[in-house]
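To whoever is on call:

I kicked off a structure prediction for a single chain this morning and the downstream step that reads the tokens threw a length-mismatch warning. I double-checked the sequence; it's 88 residues and nothing unusual in it as far as I can see. Pasting both halves so you can look.
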Amino acid sequence: MSSSESPAADGPNTKGPWTEETKRKFETKSKSQYFDPCQDAAARSIRCLKRNNGDREMCGEYFQAYRDCRQAWMDKRREERRKAGYLF
């Protein structure tokens, strides 16, 4: 595993999934278009599965990195919606 593929690369020293750029992309996308700022973490977990012949136990750190990314993204979106006056 190279350092660029390491789940630790998503650590606290890197910018989170919800930056001004990702916010702009999310808000300007069409309603039918899917947008995931954590796609990089998802791709790493899929590569790990392929590399390990589908053995999920070998890729737990990658799955957790993706879950952490998604949680940070959803928390930030929720916070911004609350600030904007939305109820949900």
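Update from on-call: the warning came from a stale cache, not from the record. Cleared it. Sanity check on the structure: Residues 35-88 form one domain.
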